[in-house]
Amino acid sequence: AAWAPPAGAMSFPDGFVWGAATSAFQVEGSTTADGRGPSIWDTFCAQPGRIDDGATGNPAADQYLRWEQDLDLMVGLGLQAYRFSVSWPRIVPTGSGEVNQKGVDHYRRVVDGLLDRGMHPAITLYHWDLPQPLQDAGGWTARETADRFGEYAAVMFEAFRDVDATWLTINEPKTTAMVGYAGTEHAPALGDLDAGMAAVHHQLLAHGRAVQAFREVGGRGSIGIALNLMPVYAAPGAETAAGNLDAAENRLYLDPVLLGEYPPEAVGPGPGQLHADAAAFEALVQDGDLEVISTPADVLAVQYYGAAGIDSTGAWLQLFPPSPAGWQQVHAEGLYETLVGLAADYPDLPPLVISENGIPDADPQGQIEDPARLDFLRTHLQQAARAVGEGVDLRQYYAWSLLDNFEWARGMTQRWGIVHVDFATQERTPKASARWYAEVCAANAVPS
Ligand code: GBH
């Protein structure tokens, strides 16, 4: 029989941390302020036709100027943590060399503002806004970019050595590699699968270098990578294809980080595999790289949006209801399966964080009453609680997103916030889901 939630509330363990997430390019605006250099997303947005409504990173949700008000907004909702990302081109405007102190100072104010309000900072170092000069030198196809990331990460760890933060190194290396390098929907839109495979390896290497730098600096708090995971469901007779797709979508990132090896099934000519040049991929991996990538981290951050289905030919199937984001198949139980599957498959699994989970508004014009989002959050949190009840060590949860914001190629036409933003005035209004989520934070439980 299908699992059903209990009649009463589902509690989370004492000390569980409740928050919401954003990323720099999606909310900050002020893209030339205080010495910020250009990023690949500034370049991409300037190319006609890339962004549905022609939006750019300016002003987005204007958080570079409105950060203090947004911190107060979160306090008002009873949030205990804020996951934001640091814009690399604010810290190192050319991607290498000189550090821009004004950029560091901005995030110092934000972090101190969080601490003053009793909130926990979760700081992502890379959420897709690569400094353009590094892209000009090959971007993530170039091994040197991992070195540059390690240097930038060390700058941040030094500057925030005193802070008990949750550091997340790279946000969704899969998306950058497969949508930005192999594909063309995201910057830098190379459309080259071999470039995508290089971007996989070099981002993971960058993650490992950052973990090493964190240990060398002796930073407080914890560190890990943020991976978007997707349970794969097989049509009858499609078990091999489903295993391949799981390797390509999930284990290609999990196994090197947690086990120090790449899954051989990820790349090949078969259904569900990445049809890339396996020998070329192997040639990227130098002696010692997998040891660096698997440097033990403190947390694994999971971003969960939905599930995938596949048939024996490798065709993707729509097995679950689509969200207003066409790519998203809503399947709350898949979150439970993902969490317990991680615990079962990886013996040295560190504590887990859900660093993103959410759904867009049904109405692209925006809405305050958002019953579908409330239902999405409720059912996913019930599945998270179910996994915790079975022994999964889950410590933190972040809704995506705190605010309506710049949704990449969808521009401002797809709204993911639990808080509505009127982009004409930048006025913030909590949606029904935010008011409900405030109850969750206060009770440390999902109400029945
Ligand atoms: C997250 O990625 C991101 O971390 C976050 O920044 C983003 O706002 C959020 O999702 C909502 O989208 O353009 O048709 O090629 C989730 C995984 C992978 C989903 C890339 C969208 C692009 C689809 N994303 N995918 S398409």
Automatic annotation (TrEMBL):
It catalyses: Hydrolysis of terminal, non-reducing beta-D-glucosyl residues with release of beta-D-glucose. Pfam families: Glyco_hydro_1 (PF00232). The keyword Hydrolase applies. Keywords: Carbohydrate metabolism, Cellulose degradation, Glycosidase, Hydrolase, Polysaccharide degradation. Gene3D superfamilies: Glycosidases (3.20.20.80). It comes from the Bacteria. Its EC number is 3.2.1.21. GO terms for molecular function: beta-galactosidase activity. Belongs to the glycosyl hydrolase 1 family. This is Beta-glucosidase. It comes from Cellulomonas fulva.
